[in-house]
Amino acid sequence: MTAEVLHHTRHAEQDRQSRLKNRILCCSVAGCLSAGAEGVREAIQNETDHPETEVCRTGCMGLCSRGPLVRSSANDVVYTDVTPRDARAIAHGEPIEGRMLRPDHPFYAGQRRLILANSGYADPERIGDYIALGGYQSLLCALAEMKPEEIVGEVKKSRLRGRGGAGYPAGLKWELVARHPSSTKYVICNADEGDPGAFMNRSVLEGDPHRVLEGMAIAGRAVGAQQGYIYARGESPLAIERIRTAIAQARREGLLGSRILDSSFQFEIDLRIGAGAYVCGEETALIASIEGKRGQPVPRPPYPPESGLWGQPTLINNVETFANISTIIEQGGEWFASIGAPASPGTKVFALAGRIVRTGLVEVPIGTSLRTILFDLGGGVPEGYQFKAAQTGGPAGGCIPAQYLDLPMDYDSLTRIGTMMGSGGLIVMDTSSCMVDVARFFMEFCRDESCGKCIPCRAGTVQMHEILARMTRGEGVEGDFKMLEELSGLLKEASLCGLGLAAPNPVLSTLRHFREEYEEHIREHRCPAGHCHMGAAQ
Amino acid sequence: MARHRYSGDALIEVLHVAQQLYGYLSHPLLRTVARKLKLPPSRVLGVATFYHLFRFAPSREHRAVVCMGTACYAAGAPDLLARLRHRCGDNWTIEEARCVGSCGLAAVVNCDGAAWSRVTLADLEARLSCAAGQAPSAQIQPRQ
After folding, report:
1. pLDDT digits (tens, 9 = 90+) for A388-403
2. Does the interface ipTM go beyond 0.90?
3. Shortest Cα distance, chain A CAs vs residue B90, angstroms
4. What superfamily would CATH give domain A18-103?
5. Which of residues 391-450 of A touch B (CB under 8 A)?
6. pTM for the full model?
C-alpha cells in the first residue's frame, strides 16, 4: 500500500459510510458476547431489509453491566440491555424508553475516550473501518515525515508513562533501545493482562486491534526493530483471534511486512500465546516464555533495552501504552502532555467492577478524582450498600478507603497512600467485604502464581497466606502482626521480581487503613464484616 | 512443529496446538514433542507443568470453569464453586480460572464453552439443567 492508496481507501470508506442512512454497531467483545451479543446482532441484521442500513460489530462501549450494548449512528444513542426482541425497534431507529444512553449521559460525559475512540464506531474485523477513522496515518507520518529520533522525541515530549502498572517513562525506554548499536532488536507488546479484575487490554485487543499494531510498528521504526511480538493470554481466545485477523489484514494491505507504505521499513508482528501464568506479565519472565522456557524471571540489570529477547535489545510496553502512540504522533507530544496530570499526562482506562451501579470500562484523564469516577461515572454504590474501599493494582496493589475519595487518580498520589495505579483494575468493595480476607485472597493468588525460583517469594507467600488464613478462621495470635510485617519486609527487599516484591502490598495497605479489622480478628476472633467463618475459636 | 522449523523456542506454541488436537498432554505425547524438538524430556515436562492451562489428564464429558477473579470472588464465586463440586458427578471437570476478564458481569462461569454471566447460587440449578441437554441459553437475570 502506498500513501496514495491509504488516502484513497480512507476517503472511499468515509464516503461510503456517509451515504448510509444508519450504522448499527453491536458491541462484540467478550463481556457483551457472553450476554448474548451475537444473537442480538443477527436479530437486528434480520430486521434490516435495506442496504442503506449497515449492521456490524464494534468494540467496548464501556457500560458492561448493561450489555449487550448497541450503538445507532443515526440517532447517536447507545441502547442498553438489548435482547433480540428489541431488534425491530433498533433496526428502524426507534427509541426504547429507559434504555438509551446519549453522549451527554453522566457515564459518557465525564470520560475522555482517546484509547477507546474507535470503540462504538468501527468494526474490529474490518481494516477499512480503522483506516476510515484515520488509522495508519500516524504510521505513514512516522515513516514519510519523521526520523526515528524525532519519533522518540515526540514520545518523550508526551511524557507518556508505561500503562502496565509501573509507570516508567515510555520515551526514556524507547530512547534506551534506540540508542543501542545492535542491528537486531525486538518490540514486544505485553498483553498478558493477568490482574484479576482488569480487562482493559483485552477490550482494546478485541475491539480495536489495529491501534495496537500501528503503535508497535511506529515503535519498531523509532527504535530500529524489524520484529514484534504480541504476548497474549491463552485465556482470551477472542483476543487471539482478533489479533490474528488484524495482523493478516495488515500484512495483506502492505501495512506490515516489507516496504511498508513505500518506505524501506520492514516490520513483522507475530503472536505468542501465554499458557496461564500471572508471572509472565513480568517482562523477563515473558521473554523466557517466548523463548520456550518456564516463565521464571532473571535478575536485572541487564534490563531488556540492553539485553532482552534472545539477548538482544528489546522494547517491552503494555497494550495500552502502544494504544496511545498513534494519537501522540497524530496530535503531537505536547498536546498529549497537556491532558491529565503534569507528572502523568494522558488518559487511563479503568476497569470498574465490584459493588458499583455501573460496571465496565471508563477512560478518564489521569488525575481525575476517585469520587468522580465512582459516583459521577460509576453511578455510586447501589442502594442498601455502603462504600468501604476501592482496590487498585490487583495483587500488587492496595486499597483506597473512604477518606481518600477525593484523591486524584495518578501514579504518584496512589503510591503515596500505599497503593498503586497498576494496570487499571478498580474494584469497589462495600462493608460486607472483609479486608483481612481480601488480603488473604491476593496472597493466595501470589502464592499460586509464584514461579518458585526465589525463596523469599516461594516460601514467603506460603507463610504469609497461612497467617492470613488462620486469622480468617479465628486462629490469629498477637505475634501475627510482627510476622506479617517482617515477612513483608523480607519479600520487598529480597525477591527477584515484581511478583514477590509487590505481593505484600495488599497486606500492608489493609494493615495501614484497616488495622482495627485485623485487631478484631486476632483479639476478639470476630470478623466485623461478618464474612469470615470463625470456627471453633468463637 | 514444522511451521516453527522444529525450533526449541516454539515449545509452548507446539504444546498449545497439541492440547487442542488431543485434548490433553499425555506422557507419550510429551515424549514425542521432546524427541522431535530435540529437547530433554525433563525440560518439556518442566515447561508444560509450569503453566496452568496445560492439562495432563483427559477432560470429562462436561467442563465447568469458575472465574475466581477479584470481582467474581466478591460476587460469590467460591460458593458457586463449592455448589458445583458438590452437585456435579464424575462426568464433570470443575476448575477454577484466574480471571477471564468479564469483570463487569461477575460472577462468570464457563460451562462447556458457553460463558454464563451474572451467575448466582439461585439460578445455578436452572442453568445446569439447560446445559444438561435441553435448549440452549439460560435466562440472564436482569440487574436490579
Report:
1. 999 999 999 999 999 9
2. no
3. 25
4. Glutaredoxin (3.40.30.10)
5. 391, 394, 425, 427, 429, 433, 441, 445, 449
6. 0.94
